[in-house]
Write a sequence for this structure.
């Protein structure tokens, strides 16, 4: 499985220049000294604090504070999951200008997998100890609710012990509209079939200004939050995301994070937050300048500091690249996602990372960064060492 090339992650040792090495006095003397006092005391940061964190040029001071919170919560542990991504279709009724994955009905390059084809993808990897399936696709205007329910049941039948994280809130809203059912009814049917969690995609940026510019036909920010909260009330937990590095302002990022924090205060149902680095290639925004590593690390760090009620922050190596993901482990991130396999959405937009990593590669890059790898399941419960560890 995974890529066939040899990667020497031991060559990248970030410990010597990490934020943790600069010392407390540096941070106290920086323009963030008052915010640092709040972080040490465990006090909640304000919107003004969040904007200041995004505006600062003292990246190491920012990273020092984020790392302080990260190690307070998780010590040296860094999580990864043995998972498989399955994209069942890229045909989508929405017309989001930032998306390189979707195709309109009838457009060249569009695809939809049959339920049996999805099940076959799961069967192809039965020899691997996968613990999570991550299933997402477009808002296909022609698929009935029974398709999604049967898809989940088939995966569950192929591998009953695995956990299924499937369908964003945007997909759930689309299913409910097409089936003329309530969101609660759709979520209940999917949960009965085997869905235990929702991915965090589709949140993009909650700013109404941005959504009118980039995805006016998509589920609103209020709709995204309401469906996530409804899922939590039914016992289905979920992830949350922010798509950054395009047209949004720092203040709009902060408002997005604070909306997630408020929702988490209400339900406690979010598992992890995933900053998604925008990939402009092959999108309607391909003219934009590429984001910088400075923005990547700053976004992860600010998220860790503002989202005080989120247990985990992910450095999604698919979007960041493995080297930046390693550095992010000292800027607030404690999770790297996982083996992934066959990721299409980011790569169709120009992500240059591999499409999969082996468990050995994941653990090697975590150890090279001075952290301790912990294999987890969807809910961040540690997975026991298996008898086949040596062969993996």
């Amino acid at each position: 499985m995974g890529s066939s090339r040899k990667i020497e992650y031991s060559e990248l040792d970030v410990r010597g220049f990490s934020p943790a090495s600069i010392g407390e006095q540096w941070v106290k003397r920086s323009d963030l000294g008052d915010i640092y006092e709040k972080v040490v005391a465990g006090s909640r940061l304000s919107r003004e604090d969040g904007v200041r964190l995004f505006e600062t040029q003292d990246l190491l001071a920012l990273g020092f504070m984020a790392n302080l919170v990260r190690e307070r919560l998780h010590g040296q542990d860094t999580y990864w999951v043995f998972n498989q991504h399955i994209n069942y279709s890229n045909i989508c009724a929405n017309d989001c200008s930032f998306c390189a994955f979707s195709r309109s009905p009838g457009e060249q390059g569009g695809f939809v997998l049959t339920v049996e084809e999805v099940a076959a993808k799961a069967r192809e990897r039965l020899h691997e100890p996968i613990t999570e399936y991550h299933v997402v696709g477009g808002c296909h205007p022609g698929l009935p609710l029974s398709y999604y329910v049967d898809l989940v049941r088939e995966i569950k039948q192929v591998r009953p012990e695995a956990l299924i994280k499937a369908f964003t809130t945007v997909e759930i809203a689309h299913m409910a509209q097409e089936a003329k059912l309530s969101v609660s009814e759709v979520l209940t049917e999917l949960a009965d079939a085997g869905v235990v969690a929702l991915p965090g995609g589709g949140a993009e940026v909650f700013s109404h200004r941005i959504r009118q510019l980039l995805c006016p036909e998509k589920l609103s920010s209020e709709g995204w939050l309401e469906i996530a909260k409804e899922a939590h009330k039914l016992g289905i937990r979920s992830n949350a995301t922010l798509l950054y590095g395009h047209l949004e302002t720092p203040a709009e990022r902060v408002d997005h994070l604070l909306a997630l924090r408020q929702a988490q205060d209400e339900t406690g149902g979010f598992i992890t937050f995933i900053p998604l680095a925008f990939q402009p290639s092959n999108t309607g925004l391909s003219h934009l300048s590429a984001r910088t590593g400075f923005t990547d690390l700053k976004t992860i760090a600010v998220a860790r500091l503002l989202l005080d009620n989120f247990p985990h922050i992910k450095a999604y190596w698919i979007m960041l690249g493995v080297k930046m993901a390693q550095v992010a482990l000292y800027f607030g991130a404690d999770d790297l996602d996982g083996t992934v396999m066959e990721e299409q959405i980011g790569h169709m937009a120009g992500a240059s990372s591999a499409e999969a990593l082996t468990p050995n590669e994941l653990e090697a890059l975590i150890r090279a960064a001075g952290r301790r790898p912990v294999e987890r399941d969807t809910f961040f419960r540690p997975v026991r060492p298996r008898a086949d560890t040596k062969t993996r």
In short: The longest helix spans residues 250-267. Strands lie at 77-81, 83-87, 132-136, 163-166, 195-198, 237-244, 270-277, 312-313, 335-338, 372-376. The two ends are 10 Å apart (CA to CA). Residues 1-13, 343-353, 386-392 have pLDDT under 50 and may be disordered.
